[in-house]
Design brief:
The longest helix is centred in the N-terminal third of the chain and has 12 residues. The protein is α/β, with parallel strands linked by helices and 129 residues long. The protein is built from two helices and eight strands. The protein has two domains: 66 residues, Signal recognition particle alu RNA binding heterodimer, srp9/1 (2-Layer Sandwich), CATH 3.30.720.120; 56 residues, Signal recognition particle alu RNA binding heterodimer, srp9/1.
C-alpha cells in the first residue's frame, strides 16, 4: 500500500485572506478556521465520505512570523476545466494573482503566477474537464 496525498500545508502571514483567494481559485470551501490555521477543501468530498477515484487534497494555511524569501521549491499546477488558459489567467489576476518570473523563459506552455502572498503557481495550457 502506498501513501495518499491528502493535504498541502502553506505557511503565510494571513491564513484567512490566502484561504479566501484559494477557495475562489479552486471552488473550495473552508473546513476549519481558527486564529492561526485555516483548512480548505472540495465541497464535493464531504469529510469522512467514501468515494472511489482521486480525492482533491486539502490546503491548510498556517500563520508564521517570517515572510517568503525565495522561489518556492514546491508549487501548485492548475488545469482549467471550463475555460481556456488565457481566460483562466485573467480570472485569477482579477482574484488577486499576479504574473511571476521564476526563470521559466519564453515559449513555455504554462503561465506562472503568484498568489497574494507571492507563492508561485502555474496555469497549464491543456484543459481537463
Amino acid at each position: 500500500m502506498a501513501s495518499k496525498f491528502a493535504e498541502l500545508a502553506i505557511d503565510c502571514a494571513d491564513p484567512v485572506g490566502l484561504a479566501r483567494f484559494w477557495c475562489a481559485v479552486l471552488g473550495y470551501e473552508v473546513l476549519h478556521q481558527d486564529e492561526e490555521i485555516v483548512t480548505i477543501g472540495s465541497p464535493l468530498v464531504p469529510e469522512g465520505k467514501d468515494r472511489p477515484g482521486p480525492v482533491p487534497p486539502l490546503l491548510t494555511f498556517a500563520r508564521v512570523p517570517e515572510g517568503k524569501t525565495a522561489k518556492n521549491r514546491l508549487h501548485i499546477d492548475l488545469n482549467p476545466t471550463d475555460r481556456e488558459q488565457a481566460e483562466e489567467v485573467r480570472r485569477l489576476i482579477e482574484l488577486g494573482a499576479r504574473h511571476a518570473d521564476v526563470g521559466q523563459g519564453d515559449g513555455v506552455s504554462w503561465v506562472t503566477l503568484a498568489d497574494p502572498e507571492d507563492n508561485e503557481f502555474c496555469v497549464l495550457a491543456t484543459r481537463c474537464p
